[in-house]
Every structure is written in structure tokens, then in C-alpha cells.
Amino acid sequence: CLWLNALGASAAGVFFSLAGYEAGARARADGVGLPLFVMDLTGAPQPVNSPADELVSTGA
User: Fold this and answer.
1) 3-state SS assignment for residue 49
2) How many CB atoms lie within 10 A of CB 52?
3) Structure-derived torsion over alpha carbons of residues 38, 44, 50, 54, reported in degrees to the nearest 10
4) CA 4 to CA 41: how far, in whole Å?
5) Within 10 A of 54 (CB to CB), how many other CB atoms are there?
């Protein structure tokens, strides 16, 4: 499972969605520091939560 692998390894997991995320999924992702992105109409990823904002601003 990608989710468990990302949490247990020395790698950061990142999730992308076309349709967005439910409130519960966003809350859980925020709780574990998982960056969430949505793809805009041009196909560019846009940050959804603060871990995603931090990833974009720091690059790590």
C-alpha cells in the first residue's frame, strides 16, 4: 500500500487528485503532514493543504 509505505519509509508521500478531497480526508492528511494537490484545468498541480504549501515553498 502506497500510503503505508510512504509513512514507514524515509520518503515523503504526496497525493494528487482531479476531483478534490473530502473534508475527512483533508483532516487526516493534515494530521499526518501529507501534502495534497489537485490538478487544475491545465494539468498543473495546485496545493490544497499546508503541508503541500510547505512542500512548494521549500522544495522538500
Assistant:
1) coil
2) 22
3) 150
4) 30
5) 14
**Dist CA 11 CA 20 (whole Å):** 23
Pairing status of strand 36-39 against strand 45-47: antiparallel
Q: Are 51 and 36 in contact (CB under 8 A)?
A: yes
CB 38 within 8 A of CB 17: yes
Burial class (CB in 10 A: 0-12, 13-18, 19+), 2: exposed
Spell out the per-residue pLDDT of the chain, length 60, in tens: 555 665 665 667 899 999 999 999 999 999 999 999 999 999 999 999 999 999 999 986
